[in-house]
Specification:
Chain A is of the alpha/beta class. Helices cover 34% and strands 15% of the residues of chain A. The chains are: A alpha/beta, B mainly alpha. The interface between A and B is large, with 90 and 84 residues.
Chain lengths: 473, 718
């Protein structure tokens, strides 16, 4: 497709009311003309709560007992039927990898793994999981490599709690360096696209303001020591990061493209869980398509158990996971969860569709994207993390082997809690952990490591470190 | 010492993990273990089935890593070697911990240095040394710091500003300008000065709030001067001058705006910095936009975010300046800026001595009209009963209580009643801790009617003559003789049935807060008592432990907890379980009981109870005998130790203890100072405890002592 075609497509999207900003795309075109352009890779992490029950991701033709075995097995997806929860991914079966049999390792995913979900680290149990930030998360590790004006766009949804703003729950640049998930779509929108209707002066003014505030707080540096100084420096870094971002947006303004491509702010502001999920996915999509970011994390339940799936069920998410009956709907919790997962899958599919519409380097943006779709609570609400199912969508420029179901050695698990009767599976004790998958992703984006956040002997055990040969091309 | 654990491993940079020097665990750790541990944990009959004689210091072996982690927790918490055994010197212990920490680092284990600043580690400072009575050699004070103000305090400021200037903003409901930060829910004190971070998300939100308020301020000052409400003449002049605004007009804005927003003059540095900014923006943008930018900047500046507690100069501890002190005093007790009298005291130099500070503290504490949420919040966070609504109770367990559906249970009721109980004890201000631990009274259904499900009736009782399901549950749980609404008065206290309750630890709010989804949580309850009343230290859960009780509903909780009595677990669990198990006197909804209900497996599996698919139609329960015995052991006060037959004997013994009182004072120190105590704070703690005792167990006296201590009044950069 010619560059004119792409411009035309963008224009058409704009006239259709789509939330697009031209600037980074046009920058790409310009870079291509100069020969400096390199196709960016993009990764989207989708984390949902209450567990990814095996039933929700195993193809219909493969009943769970058939998957039990002591060897790693792969099944082509081509002739298999995706189950209800992930049925919206059917058009991309050839770009889909479903993974079973990874272990939680030292992570405690029971009731949501908190900062353990994306770091693969033991961050404790109970409240500690959403408080202890002990190391880098995989999305941050990837963002370090892939960059972007917003290196890591972290969006959250606090189910049924429209007043929640920013919560630190899933992602961190390193120990003690958490990133907050923006839980309000309108605020995320402002951060990402707020400068679009601006004038040149607005950028300069905002920069002056940020610099003034930074100077103000820097003055206190000489009077603080130790932890208190680290605390202050965290804020100073935040000011500087905002200032840099502002400068980059100003550059885009200077190229004259921002002003004419301002998207509309979504109104009315979403309140229900389902609407908020939709809005956050829309924002993430626009941010990716416009090149404002290459890495997105969407945590639909903030890596814990809280709130309500309003829009689907008014019951508490906790009760839903316990298979309580929703009296209004007349269905049980474990019938509600598939609806929740399906909604999230539909929004993910919509994101993929948009990327597929966007031409890039002879293909589409989808060709260079990977979606990691999983639950921060492994395979159920009350789990030991015996099996942590993942769905990978997209092959990241041919780096991930797709079109397959990969099952590491796995057996049937014995039930531990009544009320969550769904069949669960248990990975063999020496199966790789989620850390191996995360290192596989790092290899795929060109930032390989010896291991990702493993401890002890596992650091040097190839079976544990990854990359997983079943997944990495 | 603990602070040497500066070993956060930043894997984030992607560098290979290598210690600066090879860890010398084999040279230091292994000989340490041989000298102090192997005599009990050796080859023959090792205690707790833990053998340490084969350790080599090679942490690449998974089993060895696991054992060393347990060793680390035990040595660091000083639980091991036991007091009856030969003790390592402080130097040996420090070297051991350092070498072990270095080796852990090389193995990729992350040990959070900041954890030692968290309240859960407060008890690690030796209690005996703290209260040994060694007089203070010199003023020590508290490290210079920024303490993020509470969300409610920020919101109160913004709300008052909007009202004072009649800005016409709808500051309620979805339009409310809420604080840019929340507390992370946790069971410790969440508002420690050292734990908060202000990052990009908070700053962006702060800017957004500030922009909304600033725009409204500009609008207010753009037309004719209003006949009421706040107004800054200089600001209006600058705005109206527009593009023709002069530097002089800009200069004239600064001081009055500072006065209106912060009640003070700008400092010389601020005059220079903000003045330059204002002149520059006036020249480039004109008066109105420059004024707006100034307002945004001021509403985002440091004072809007923090209690700024820094000394005027480096070196020896310096007393906080009067203004900072007045803010710290106000934020210690309230969620508001200093009231007028406190501001006046600061500007008139009447906060110069501890006595003058005490006068202000007493005034606020004695003023019934002064809203002091921080005082109640201390008790909520100390007892932790306010987390009861966060403990989810599912339908099956509700049905066991005889409650159907979600409307039958409202934990907020119990928290509100406990709040009122605390407030009534505080109003008496006599033997506060003992009274809270031993009262046999409760309030009932004190949540104001208008706060319930949107009901706004002023006379709820008349409009709703019958009790609702959740109210009926509460009456049943409390065992109160309330039959009709005519019997009920939310302002009065009721006596619990004799012998069924004793203080907050038997109040359903606390019992539910310290319970699980399906059961009591004897471990949490025991841990609370060990840490909050006895001042004990519970080692961290080893990462290899899967902390789950077996799912055996046909056994009592005490029976299911047999797994914690395995030798490997018991070292830690003996500190918690015997303190928590007496509370089996109550079920996990907080109901008094004489027998325990468990699943009757045989009856459930009986043919009569099976459907055509061979599955049980329903779960059948049976009653088994209740065991409420427990034990206090290993406490610093030997008079406390010994078996107890039930929770009441346990509580009475604890409530009578001076040691327990001292531990309570330590927690009050942490809350009001926003940090853990150090040995240097010993004299402050002794003085606070004496003030409490000499004044008949007065919380007011305790708070006054803390807020007039050197620790509160002085800051140091050392």
């Amino acid at each position: 497709m010619s560059r004119m075609d792409r411009r035309s497509l963008l224009a058409r999207s704009l006239s259709g009311g789509a939330a697009l900003v031209f600037a980074p795309l046009l920058s790409k075109l310009e870079a291509q003309e100069k020969g400096t352009y390199k196709t960016p890779k993009r990764i989207v992490f989708v984390l949902f709560g209450n567990g990814f029950h095996e039933k929700g991701s195993i193809p219909k033709e493969l009943p769970a007992p058939q998957l039990e075995g002591k060897k790693t097995t792969t099944y082509p997806l081509e002739k298999l039927t995706l189950p209800h929860d992930i049925e919206p991914f059917t058009p991309w079966k050839d770009r889909l990898a479903i993974v079973h049999g990874l272990r939680a390792g030292s992570v405690h995913p029971d009731h949501g793994a908190g900062f353990g979900a994306l770091s693969g680290m033991n961050v404790g149990v109970g409240d500690d999981k959403i408080r202890n930030v002990l190391g880098e998360s995989i999305d941050a590790a990837v963002a370090r490599k892939l960059g972007g004006i917003f290196p890591l766009l972290n969006l959250g949804i606090d189910p049924g709690q429209p007043n929640t703003k920013a919560i630190r729950c899933s992602s961190a640049w390193g120990a003690g360096q958490p990133l907050a998930a923006q839980c309000r779509p309108e605020l995320a929108y402002e951060s990402l696209f707020g400068g679009i209707g601006a004038t040149k002066n607005d950028f300069a003014t905002r920069k002056n303001l940020l610099d003034l505030l930074n100077d103000d707080i820097k003055e206190l540096r000489s009077q603080l020591r130790g932890t208190e100084l680290v605390q202050l420096d965290y804020q100073i870094e935040a000011f500087e990061s905002l200032s840099k971002r502002n400068a980059k947006l100003a550059e885009m303004f200077d190229k004259g493209v921002l002003a004419k491509s301002a998207p509309k702010l979504p109104t009315p502001y979403p309140v229900k869980f389902t609407d908020t999920v939709t809005a956050q996915f829309d924002i993430a999509t626009s941010a990716i398509v416009t090149g404002l970011t290459n890495v997105v994390t969407i945590a639909t339940e903030l890596c814990t158990i809280r709130g309500n799936y309003t829009g689907i069920s008014d019951m508490g998410t906790h009760g839903v996971g316990h298979n309580e009956k929703d009296v209004k709907l007349g269905i049980a919790g474990l019938e509600i969860l598939p609806l929740v997962r399906r909604h999230i899958a539909e929004r993910t599919a919509a994101l993929l569709n948009r990327l597929k519409e966007m031409p890039e380097d002879g293909g589409t943006m989808l060709d260079n994207t990977l979606v990691v779709f999983t639950s921060d609570s492994a395979n159920r609400q009350h789990t030991h993390g015996e099996n942590w199912p993942f769905v990978l969508l997209g092959n990241l420029g041919g780096k991930i082997k797709t079109g397959q179901l990969v099952v590491y050695p796995i057996s049937k698990d014995s039930p531990t809690y009544s009320g969550t009767e769904n069949r669960h599976m248990s990975a063999a004790a020496d199966n790789p952990t989620i850390n191996a998958l995360y290192n596989t992703i790092l290899h795929a984006v060109g930032a390989p490591r010896d291991h990702f956040n493993l401890i002890g002997a596992d650091q040097k055990n190839p079976a544990m470190t990854g990359p997983l040969k079943e997944l990495l091309v | 010492m603990i602070s040497t654990w500066t070993i956060l491993i930043l894997l984030s940079v992607g560098l290979p993990i290598r210690a600066a020097e090879p860890p010398n665990l084999a040279k230091i750790g292994v000989p340490f273990v041989a000298k102090y541990c192997v005599s009990c944990h050796g080859e023959k009959k090792p205690k707790a089935d833990i053998s340490l004689h084969t350790l080599t210091g090679d942490l690449s072996k998974p089993k060895e890593l696991q054992v060393w982690q347990a060793v680390l927790a035990q040595i660091d918490s000083r639980e091991m070697p036991p007091k009856s055994s030969k003790q390592p010197t402080d130097n040996e212990r420090t070297q051991m911990l350092e070498s072990l920490a270095a080796a852990m680092k090389a193995s990729g284990v992350v040990l959070d240095d900041n954890k030692w600043l968290s309240p859960v580690k407060g008890n690690y400072v030796d209690h005996h040394l703290l209260f040994s009575g060694v007089p203070a050699k010199e003023i020590t004070g508290t490290k210079a710091r920024l303490w993020r103000i509470t969300g409610p305090a920020y919101e109160d400021y913004i709300d008052k500003l909007i009202k004072r200037f009649v800005l016409g903003l709808r500051n309620y409901g979805e339009f409310r300008l809420t604080a840019p930060w929340n507390f992370t829910p946790q069971k410790d004190f969440p508002d420690y000065a050292s734990v908060h971070r202000v990052g990009e998300a908070e700053i962006e939100y702060l800017l957004r709030n500030a922009s909304i308020v600033a725009a409204a301020m500009i609008k207010r000052h753009s037309g004719n001067k209003p006949s009421y409400g706040g107004y800054i003449t200089g600001l209006a002049t600058l705005i109206k001058a527009g593009k023709n605004a002069t530097p002089e007009q800009a200069d004239a804005v600064l001081a009055p705006t500072f006065r209106e927003l912060f009640g003070r003059e700008p400092s010389d540095r601020e005059k220079e910095r903000y003045g330059t900014f204002l002149r520059k923006t006036t020249a480039s943008l004109g008066g109105a936009d420059a004024a707006e930018q100034l307002l945004i900047a001021l509403l985002c500046q440091t004072e809007m975010i923090y209690r700024i507690e820094v000394p005027n100069k480096a070196g020896t501890p310096q007393k906080l300046d009067a203004r900072s002190l007045s803010r710290s005093l106000a934020f210690a007790l309230t969620d508001q800026l200093p009231d007028q009298l406190l501001q006046d005291a600061a500007t008139q130099g009447k906060l110069g001595t501890p006595e003058e500070v005490a006068t202000q503290v007493r005034r606020i504490l004695d003023d019934p009209k002064a809203d002091k949420p921080r005082v109640l919040r201390f008790f909520r966070e100390y007892f932790n009963y306010d987390s009861a609504p966060n403990v989810f109770k599912d339908e099956v367990t509700l049905m066991k209580l005889g409650v159907r559906g979600g409307r039958g249970w409202n934990a907020d009721f119990y928290v509100s009643d406990a709040d009122q109980l605390v407030l009534s004890v505080l109003a008496q201000d006599r033997d506060v801790l003992r009274e809270l631990l031993t009262t046999t009274k409760t309030f009932a259904m004190t949540i104001p009617p208008q706060d319930r499900r949107g009901t706004r009736s002023d006379d709820y009782r008349l409009k709703k003559p019958s009790f609702e399901q959740d109210e009926q549950t509460l009456i049943k749980v409390y065992e109160l003789p309330i039959k009709t609404r005519a019997d009920w008065d939310p302002k009065k206290t009721y006596d619990f049935p004799e012998g069924h309750r004793l203080g907050l630890l038997t109040h359903p709010a606390w019992l539910v807060a310290q319970s699980g989804n399906f059961d009591n949580h004897a471990i949490h309850r025991g841990r609370w008592i060990r840490e909050r009343l006895l001042g004990g230290r519970i080692p961290e859960l080893p990462i290899t432990v899967n902390a789950m009780l077996p799912d055996e509903p046909h056994h009592s909780l005490r029976d299911r907890m047999k797994v914690t009595r395995e030798a490997y677990c018991w070292t830690c669990h003996k500190q918690m379980d015997p303190l928590g198990l007496p509370f089996e006197q109550f079920d996990h909804f907080g109901q008094f009981r004489k027998e325990e209900m468990v699943v009757d497996r045989e009856a459930t599996a009986d043919k009569k109870n099976l459907n055509k698919n061979g599955e049980p139609k329903r779960t059948i329960f049976k009653l088994v005998a209740l065991d409420t015995t427990g034990d206090i052991s290993g406490s610093p006060d030997p008079k406390l130790d010994g078996p107890v037959k039930d929770p009441f004997e346990l509580i009475r013994r604890l409530a009578a203890s001076e040691h327990v009182e001292q531990v309570f004072v330590r927690h009050a120190f942490r809350y009001f100072l926003g940090r853990n105590e150090t040995l240097a704070d010993g004299p402050t703690l002794i003085a606070a405890h004496q003030a409490y005792r000499k004044n008949g167990g007065s919380m007011k006296a305790l708070i006054t002592a803390l807020l007039t201590s050197d620790a509160f009044l002085y800051r140091t950069t050392q």
